[in-house]
From TrEMBL:
NCBIfam families: xseB (TIGR01280). Keywords: Cytoplasm, Exonuclease, Hydrolase, Nuclease. One of its GO terms (molecular function) is exodeoxyribonuclease VII activity. Residues 1-66 form the Exonuclease VII large subunit C-terminal domain. One of its GO terms (cellular component) is exodeoxyribonuclease VII complex. GO terms for biological process: DNA catabolic process. It comes from Weissella viridescens. This is Exodeoxyribonuclease VII small subunit.
Length: 128
């Protein structure tokens, strides 16, 4: 009887710990926020429009805000071939030398990022 009570206590403690890990309050305490509009949680920028009023729920309170700008994140990762083509285009443009300095710097940085992405692809292929 005592063993089954002890097991039940252990199972309960484990379940409570698991519940605390997935608690929305624990998630908010880690720095995340919930965006609500009309008392509904917003899960996508597609659900919002410029000038919408929203409530942002944080761990210690709520912030009311007005949407001024929306930026959609690219969800489709470019393929290896698309990255390589883009890198080749950047090199061609920079070789011509008719790109304004600020744009050339931005393209160069993009080219560096693309080359690192392509190198990662090769190192992953070599591991296979």
């Amino acid at each position: 009887m005592e063993q089954s009570l002890e097991r039940a206590e252990q199972r309960t403690a484990k379940a409570v710990a698991g519940l605390q890990l997935v608690s929305p309050l624990s998630i908010l305490a880690r720095g995340y926020g919930l965006v609500e509009k009309d008392d509904k949680i917003m899960r996508s920028v597609n659900d919002l429009h410029v000038d919408d009023m929203v409530a942002i729920r944080l761990a210690d309170g709520t912030v009311n805000a007005q949407i001024k700008q929306l930026e959609k994140q690219m969800t489709d990762k470019p393929t290896f071939e698309e990255n390589l083509t883009k890198l080749e285009q950047i090199v061609t443009q920079l070789e011509k030398g008719d790109v304004p300095l600020e744009e050339a710097l931005a393209q160069f940085e993009t080219g560096i990022q693309l080359s690192q992405t392509l190198k990662k692809h090769f190192s992953q292929q070599n591991k296979v």
